[in-house]
Structures are given as C-alpha cells and as structure tokens.
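Could someone model zinc ion with this protein?
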Amino acid sequence: MESKVFLGIESSCDETAVAVLAGDGSILAELVLSQMDHAAFGGVVPEIAARKHLTVLPGMVRAAMYQAGVGFGDLAAIAATAGPGLIGGLLVGTGYAKGAAIASGVPYLAINHLEAHALTARLPSVGPVEFPFLLLLVSGGHSQFLAVEGVGRYRRLGSTLDDAAGEAFDKTAKLLGLGYPGGPAIEAAAGGGVARFGLPRPLLGRAGCDFSFSGLKTAVAQLVAACGDGALPKELVADVAASFQAAVGDVFADRLQHALGMMPKASAVVVAGGVASNFLLRARLSEVAGQAGKSLIAPPLRLCTDNAVMVAWAGIERLRAGLVDGLDAACRPRWPLPRGPL
Ligand code: KG4
Ligand code: ZN
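Reply:
Sure, complex below.
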C-alpha cells in the first residue's frame, strides 16, 4: 500500500464533503455535512450554500485528516469538484484545494462531478468493475446512459430530453406537499401506497435510450388538481407517490433494455447518482440487467448521493492515468461528459 494519501473535496451543491483515501482506494476518513438551511425555500439557495461551504470546509478538512491520522505532509494530491454545479460552492472548494496544494507542494486535480459518480463503482470496496461498463447516471441534474470505456473515456448513449429523474422526484414531491429533497420523501410515502393511478410512461418502447419526465410530472399535477384544493389526504399522497414511482420504474427498465442493446460488450451495469439510492428502481434495473446476463452494481447509499470519497477516488484514477490539472484550471457550472476542456 502506498503511504501517501489523497484528499477529496465536494462542494458543488448543498453537501460539504471531505474524504481521505489511501492510494489503493481504501477509505481512511469521510465526512458529509448536508445543509439543512434550504428546506424552507423548497430548493437550494446558491448564495447561502456557498457561504456555508466557506464556513465549514476548513474545519472539516482538519477533522477528516485527524480521523485518518495524517497531516498535510502525507498528501499525494488534492482533488476537488470543479463542476458541474453552483459556481459559488465550486469556487470555495477548488480555491481551498488549490491553496492547500500549493502549500503542500502536491498536484491539484479538478474533478468533474459526473465523472466522480461514474467511477465510484471502481472503488475496491464497491466493485471493482472493469472497463467497459454501462453507466446509468441519475441525479438531481442529470439522467443519462454512458458507455464508460476508460478513465476520461465516456460516450453518451442517451440522456433526458427535458427534466432529470431527480428533478422529477423533487417536483412531484412538491406537488404532493412532501419535503425536500423529494426522492427519499416519495420513496417513503410510496411504501405505504398502492400504484393504482395509470400515469404516462414517456418514450416507452422508443428506439434509443433517451428519457423524458416532464409529461409524467404534468400528469401528476393534473391528478393533484383534480383532487381539489387544500392538503391531500395521506392515503392519496401515498397512492400517487407509489404510482409515480412505478411509472419511473417501468421507464428505467425499458430504457435500460434498449441501452444494453446498444452496448452488448458491457462488463456490468452500474447505477450512480442520488436517484440510484431508490430501492424499487434498483430492483427493476437489477431484473433487466440479470435477464441480459449482467450484474447490476449499485454503490452503497452514502456513495450514491453526493460525497467526497468519489472525488478523491476520481483523483486517484486520474493521477494514475497521468491526468493532472494546472492551478489555473477554472470551474465550470455546466460541464457535461465526455469531459470538455476546463
Ligand atoms: O447525486 P445527487 O445527490 O446530487 C446531484 O448531483 O444532483 O442527487 C440528488 C437527487 C435529488 O433530486 C433527490 O431527490 C434524488 O437524488 N434522490 C432520490 C432518492 N434519494 C435522493 N430519488 C429517488 N429516490 C431516492 N431514494
Ligand atoms: Zn451528484
């Protein structure tokens, strides 16, 4: 095992996360602080998020390094999320990482958040999955199938034509008067409901593996409006949540079947991003992957949602591939995969 360690920093949205990994990918420390300040606004307020990152990040780095039993002299490199995400938070995380990299005399790695989600399944404790694999990335901002052929080598097979899957969960939760973030709230509510409403399954059976969720969201809005004014009864909320989740499950299953047809040589199917923590969706995906003779690799829940372990690990993978970034590397609020220049 290499004695030098990797520091990862994630601050692209409303989670401040810090992790310390050994060079072989074993996790020495991982901390995540979820900002609860945004719940009252029904979504993330960028300026509040950036200020909170700035307040907590230095102390979290010290705490993570203390927990890992290492100091700045033990670092091999520092990796921070440089996009896509909210620019204020990205500037806080990358600014800190660059400063610490200069002070410690180690390389700086600008990590693409989507690439970090994509490579999580290659962590020794999760997979490890061999290249090439088929990735379904489903988060608050993205829904896409990628052929992951190597570090930095991604081919987009399909993506959403409108809303991201997580966005559909969040918007539907809002319509149902459930809390933010909507995904976990819908999953919890659906557990006690019956999927008795026939909601649309957009693009089902269509060629390719694109997604569309806006029609589904509109159908839920119409259903809720038809139920009259005021708060919906709890049983009805549960039934609508269950119906919504079942529709998304059908869409995921169908789209995966098509994506597998487009990448028959995939070693496995990997699912990543916050929506990948949903158990019903995992079960549907696992069933379809199994029918094609592939296994479904889903990271543990804490590594599906935003975290810094994935950032440090992407840094390890990129450094191994000789892909270091300069200190002049910028942040990119929009930064799709395949990774374009910074
Ligand atoms: O990857 P992530 O933590 O942050 C982004 O990079 O976007 O994903 C957050 C998204 C949110 O939209 C949230 O509602 C959704 O993931 N999510 C879920 C679940 N847990 C989180 N969606 C469905 N079911 C869940 N259990
Ligand atoms: Zn994410």
